[in-house]
Amino acid sequence: MKGRSDGGQKKRLIALVCVAAVVLVFVYLFYGSSDHRASAIEYGRKLGLGGDDDDTKQDDTSSSFGIDDGFTPRSFPVCDDRHSELIPCLDRNLIYQMRLKLDLSLMEHYERHCPPAERRFNCLIPPPNGYKVPIKWPKSRDEVWKVNIPHTHLAHEKSDQNWMVVKGDKINFPGGGTHFHYGADKYIASMANMLNYPNNVLNNGGRLRTVFDVGCGVASFGGYLLSSDILTMSLAPNDVHQNQIQFALERGIPASLGVLGTKRLPYPSRSFELAHCSRCRIDWLQRDGILLLELDRVLRPGGYFAYSSPEAYAQDEEDLRIWREMSALVERMCWKIAAKRNQTVIWQKPLTNDCYLEREPGTQPPLCRSDNDPDAVWGVNMEACITSYSDHDHKTKGSGLAPWPARLTSPPPRLADFGYSTGMFEKDTELWRQRVDTYWDLLSPRIESDTVRNIMDMKASMGSFAAALKEKDVWVMNVVPEDGPNTLKLIYDRGLMGAVHSWCEAFSTYPRTYDLLHAWDIISDIKKKGCSEVDLLLEMDRILRPSGFIIIRDKQRVVDLVKKYLKALHWEEVGTKTDSDSNQDSDNVVFIVQKKLWLTSESLRDME
């Protein structure tokens, strides 16, 4: 009996120890996670970049962020540090977790796959340890802070190609590339010389303005074109060369994540004067040339494709085979060689439909069906067919665009596609010029001439907001909602750039991409679609740089909503102004906020 009694006491003791352990674990997880978020903006306050005492007293009592029940959280959870570079719709972990069956040979794993609502990260993305306000443009073209993108593998992997070099606390960009080790500037001048352009300047007197660089690396090609008034959409996937686009954006160079896979690129037809591939490792012959035909779709009449690759010059059997087959394909597409020198060939697309109509019946690839809208891009599959010109474009024998910079304010020829008049266009241009002046008056206490570089207009309409910024040293990603008038082609016709997107989903870019977001009615629109306004606010916070700005032009209800979340998002009000213009949205309010710089407690401890 005595032995049994001792055993019972031991069992009770073990049970008590287990219960105590469970309680301690619970307390640690609960208060530890609270401490993970406590003092989140302490670092920002130390740097004098915003913050107040109340901001550190965070409340993590709820993970429900609904707004209809009247509850507004005083804080959002902070994502784990390993998510500091999270791109929700390009998240490989999501692909693995959801066991998506994707065709790797078609690059489907690099295309957009967005998480369902129950798998979204409803938390704030933390910056990396020691994050600094980015170096200002134009100095940033050549150097960035290493702590902001703490990845140096490309510097070692591409050390013989001068992509990037680590020097102390910075990463330098000498301007090299896989095909132009000795500098993009010399390579660009060589291309201009091949095309017999005056003074070896590739913009050809403003006639060549928009460029598409596929497989762009760290976008030095596009970065060096900016000095010639050429705007480049630099595109690359989040592949084995991870962070290449992140480096480009940190440098202040226009760039976007994407891939030539199965879906159309998010750009309308006839957007670019030049497409460029420098050893971009793309199999242009696959699937009946479908990827080359997608380039053909986005090239303007008479546009060029510059191709620098071993197939253009090597003499081994395999490269010669690829060259013969590719030459035959582009000939059937009615492209002609404009120039060929050393390791580069430049093909030119026809100006009219004449060549297409003269092809033998049954020639492949075929012309696209008449009901195939070349400007429908959101979620639309590519097709292996040639996009011919409309009767109007065929007769015009070209795009009919003015040279840059007159192109920016000249009525685009495709205005008629929307029933817009020249008067409407000119009125819109002037209206947004006045509005941008008002914005900068409100921002003036907080910004200098070099404070803002990367800008996004989340609902760009005809691009007049971006046009009003011409005299400022900035670039604008003009986003056109997928369900509205597809005015993106007007934006490209003005010599600007952008993409089609649905704001019910995350944008294909890294965290901390933009210095300024312009949100005109976009928050009101998202509610009408039945999507979450709070999800959108969290996405805006994700893509906005610390110390960056958001200009909200929306209804008073939306401004009141955003004000409820200022502390939770670590945003600070900069200024408010009632809309005073006579346009249809004159009941709107202009509300400007600034994002504070903050770090997690773990990051602060690591730094110390």
Automatic annotation (TrEMBL):
Checking InterPro entries in the record gives: Put_SAM_MeTrfase
- Can you list the GO cellular component terms from the UniProt entry? endosome; Golgi membrane; trans-Golgi network
Entry keyword set: Glycoprotein, Golgi apparatus, Membrane, Methyltransferase, Signal-anchor, Transferase, Transmembrane, Transmembrane helix
Q: Which GO terms describe its molecular function?
A: methyltransferase activity
Q: Where is the protein found, in the record's own terms?
A: Golgi apparatus membrane; Membrane
EC number of the protein: 2.1.1.-
Asked if Methyltransferase is a keyword of the record, the answer is yes
Q: In what way does this protein cross or attach to the membrane?
A: Single-pass type II membrane protein
Q: What is its main location?
A: Golgi
Q: What class of enzyme is it?
A: transferase
The source's domain of life comes to Eukaryota
Q: Which GO terms describe its biological process?
A: methylation
Q: Does the keyword DNA-binding apply?
A: no
Where exactly are the transmembrane stretches of this chain? Answer: 12-31
> Can you tell me which family this protein belongs to?
Belongs to the methyltransferase superfamily.
**Protein name per the record:** Methyltransferase
Query: What organism is this sequence from?
Result: Arabidopsis suecica (Swedish thale-cress)
